[in-house]
Amino acid sequence: MVTQEPMLKAALPLFARFTVSNGLQTQHGVFEITLETVDRALPVVTRNKGLRLAEGAVGLLSADHLQLTDPDTPPENLTFLLAQLPRHGYLYLRGKVLQHNFTQQDVDSRGVAYQHSGGGSWEDCFTFLATDRKNQGFVVDGKTRKEPVLFTIQVDQLDKEAPRITRLHSPSQVGLLKNGCYGIYITSHVLKASDPDTEDDQIIFKILRGPLHGRLENTTSGEFIHERFSQKDLGSKTILYIINPSLQVNSDILEFQVMDPTGNTATPQSLELKWSYIEWFQTEYEVCENVGLLPLEVTRRGYSMDSAFVGIEVNQVSAVVGKDFTVMPSKLIQFDPGMSTKMWNIAITYDGLEEDDEVFEVILNSPVNAVLGTKTKAAVKILDSKGGRCHPSNSFNQSKHSTWGKGIWHPHSPPGSSSLTTAGSPHLERGPPPSSTKGDALQGFDPTDLSQRAMRTHGNGKSVPPSSVCRNGTDTIYNYHGIVSLKLDGGSFSAHKGKAKISIVSQPQKTIKVAEQPLADKVESTTDSHFPRQGQLPLFPKNCSVELKGLFHFEESIHRLYLCDGITWKVWSPQTKGLEDKSCPAGWHLYSGYCHTLVTQRKGTWTSATRACREQHQGNLVTIFSRRHMQWLWDISGRKPFWIGLKNQGRTGRWEWIGGEPVAFTNWRRGTPQHPRPGKNCVLVHKRGQWQSKNCSKGKAHNFVCSRKL
């Protein structure tokens, strides 16, 4: 007997010849051997990774997703029997809907596909049995299975939302670059967009219109940016706006649109860049040797709500420091927020000797958070007091400024007793010279009308006509020159509405400013110690308002400085400057140690406003401490409704500020609501600044005020 195994090992033929004999007879024959293959191996599911595709898309099932192997079965016989079809899509075999089964050969040839039918389902699946058409069962993870196996399908929701702008502020921090240019970095502190489905390097800012007066540069590559930049670029501080100082502009606008890789785009936005220029007000001076203190005026134009600094360097030329003039120790001028003019004083030395005219120069350099203007050098010529040009008889005519901006300064008081501001102090008002006007000229004004605005002295009846008249906004300003005490002629102003106020300084050649205006503000917390005599109150040129916040007024009659805080004029002193140096971010307003911002672009309900204050502005809906605070908020809101952070806590029934502050002030329209209707637990400031309870999460969207402690 011949078995199959030895025959296969010995590679025997498939037949054998043999002879049978009994000793008498012999018979020859052939023994044929037939080999039949026996399929005993089960198919094995070697890969079942599932499929992932986008919502509504078509995905192919390849051998990378699903694979069935069997050493003794060809792929065309390895079959997947569908036990359960997909619920949220369809299987296709070469374009036709698949209902029953498919083979590994179909998978290998990329003939099997799945299409999602859309809708709100983000998971799908089908189940199958595997067979080699010979044996029952199949192997999965080393175990024989006869039950259906799950094939998962993950559907990714399409990103249909564009990135959202979460921060948009005007950058204004100017830096002096190593190459001598001026630049403003655009970072994520002023411009930021977010998208939960998109990484920062994929959030793109597409430039719709580039800056008009400067250019954008990538500091890493050194290349100009013309088309786009990413949120990652903003976060890594690589976007720089280069200022073109030759154009002498102080702002620029970048228009852009934020988008994600799928093409979702947000509403176009504009980013405004702001900065200021610092320069001398005048570039040439001629001063008499006995002038005493010479104040040089430094001006800042453009955006002035940030602090700025500039250095000063003195070039002696022919004049000698310490002999002909003395400079102040401080070589740095600081502009506080809102301040546009500063004075830097130089003491001119009077030696009584007849000598040649001497010249020195004062140069501005090393600006911080500002750009140097064109007038960076001021030349000062010291005239000898015995040369005739400084004779007292010429003092009036020669004090006029000539057409090229050069003028002669004369002593108003003995040397060393000048009443001018000290170095580094704010220069608040500068009266026009006698031959000029400040502000808009009065249309149709007849010079003969000056006599009708005469003022007369006390006691002697003499009248002094004004030397010039000009209009500044709604005020009419009359300029008088004299050294006597003056008062208004009662009949001269009878035709004018409002009460005229006069600021009189009894010093030679001082400008006296008379303005027609409404009754000025009263000073908050004013005591008798503030003024030399009772009833000598300051005469402010305008009522303090939000627009004038941060500006100073110097009252010469009592030699006091006042600061407008947005509500009232308050006495200012160096001791209060520490609080003043602290400032809120751009677009925020300071009141009682808190920074406030009015949000008008994204109106919302009380609930959404609370979330926006917390997440986007790192603060809370505003807490109101006093009636004066309420009036200030009502003014900056434009007298339009806005949400505040007061809410009725349902568990206690009490009205509480969300910041935890005690409720010390209320301004209800009809008294405190004791039992507000369901849902009306939040507060809206409405008409005339009065409070009303409103629904927290439903109803009309309104502006809101966020605040945070400075």
TrEMBL record:
CDD domains: CLECT. It comes from the Eukaryota. Its main location: secreted. Residues 389-468 are annotated as: Disordered. Residues 392-402, 415-424 have a biased composition (Polar residues). Gene3D superfamilies: 2.60.40.2030, Mannose-Binding Protein A, subunit A (3.10.100.10). One of its GO terms (molecular function) is metal ion binding. Keywords: Basement membrane, Calcium, Cell adhesion, Developmental protein, Disulfide bond, Extracellular matrix, Glycoprotein, Lectin, Metal-binding, Repeat, Secreted, Signal. Residues 591-698 form the C-type lectin domain. One of its GO terms (biological process) is cell adhesion. GO terms for cellular component: basement membrane; membrane. CSPG repeats lie at residues 42-131, 167-259. Pfam families: Cadherin_3 (PF16184), Calx-beta (PF03160), Lectin_C (PF00059). It is found in: Secreted, Extracellular space, Extracellular matrix, Basement membrane. Belongs to the FRAS1 family. Interacts with FREM2. PANTHER family: FRAS1-RELATED EXTRACELLULAR MATRIX PROTEIN 1, MATRIX PROTEIN, PUTATIVE-RELATED. Extracellular matrix protein that plays a role in epidermal differentiation and is required for epidermal adhesion during embryonic development. This is FRAS1-related extracellular matrix protein 1. It comes from Cricetulus griseus. The lineage of its organism: Eukaryota, Metazoa, Chordata, Craniata, Vertebrata. The gene is Frem1.
